[in-house]
Amino acid sequence: MTTLPAFDFDLGEDIDALRDLTATFVRRELAPRANEIDRTDTFPRDLWPKLGELGLLGLTVEPEWGGAGLGYLAHCVVMEEISRGSGSVGLSYGGLRAPASGWMQALRLAMKSHRFTMPWWPNSLPMAIRERTRV
Predict the structure, then answer these.
(1) Which long-range contacts (CB under 8 A, 24 or more apart) does 85-93 make?
(2) Considering its fold, how many domains does the chain have in total?
(3) What is the pTM of this model?
(4) Mean pLDDT of 79-87
(5) Residue 96 domain-assigned (yes or no)
(6) Could you tell me if residue 8 is inside a domain?
(7) CATH at residue 65
(8) For the residues 26-30, what does the mean pLDDT come to?
(9) Is residue 54 part of a domain?
(10) Domain limits at 58?
(11) Which of these, 81, 62, 70, lies nearest to 21 by C-alpha position?
(12) What is the pLDDT of residue 130?
């Protein structure tokens, strides 16, 4: 019989602290409202600024651009904890936050590489996003 090596699921102190921070927020702010959010089919807009104050909306964005630079593992851990309190809010967090920061990252990288200059950016970005979403 083959035995598997032991797996180490220690994600590190930063991710553990992030998980604890998010779990506390969810326990205090989200879980008490989860049934009402689902029953009334409402989007809890007031939670988003609070998530931002905790630094949970810029996890994958580099620090030089105002984010935490923690990557998608951090994003997944936060999404998991939010989903423990409310699956629908967890999906909203994942669905609204990740694509937006991905677009911002791509644009910043393009601007960093000097492939695009500022005269290109104001007029062409809406068209570029519109054309990309048609694919």
Answers:
(1) 85/26, 85/27, 85/30, 85/31, 85/34, 86/30, 86/31, 86/33, 86/34, 86/37, 86/38, 88/37, 88/38, 89/30, 89/34, 89/37, 89/44, 89/47, 92/43, 93/51
(2) 1
(3) 0.70
(4) 96
(5) yes
(6) no
(7) 1.10.540.10
(8) 98
(9) yes
(10) 13-101
(11) 81
(12) 43
